[in-house]
Amino acid sequence: MEGCELIIVPTSNKYAFLMVFFAGAFNKFWFEKARVDVVCYDVIPAGLPDNFVCHSMGRQEDYGKFWTNGVRKFVEENATAVFTLFLDDYLLEKDVDYAKYNHALQRMFTSLYHKFDLTKDVASREHSELTDNLVIADQNARYRTSLQAAIWDKKYFLKYCVDGRDAWEFETVGYREAFNDGAYIYGTKDGIVQYRNAMVKGVLQ
Asked: Quick one: fold of 7-204?
């Protein structure tokens, strides 16, 4: 199995301009020109390569200021059972580890995995070591619902993608709700993708 059936990148009217930078970095460092589905609103990102497909969810004001509302609708209606999620300001800086990504993807499709962190996020918090590189988040680990780049089980994602929350609340409220939920959340010590945040406190870096 090569590649993920669905790679989703949500954006907003305010940050739609970031997508051209995201796309440039993605196509440079991803192991193939995979299709990327961009979830947007009134403002359709311009200048994107052919493998980026934009899905306008309509007027952003109809969803309020809540990140979860539009994303949840798209995932419910379009996502496969397993999908990869990036945020729009995650600019890849290094070639993705092809073998490790596909190994993680295969585990998500064939095993009882609910989320596979593609960064070092799980390894940086409360976890147990399963192999020299593979780790699993403790049931009481902080930020089990982190929005760092990850492969998600659709049902598990929707469980915490509650309407009326911004992206920060998805993480900070959601992770408390995810304490001891029995989900299997994996990651690696060295990370599978490496990127920088293009926006820090609303300022372009």
From this structure: Spore Coat Polysaccharide Biosynthesis Protein SpsA; Chain A (3.90.550)
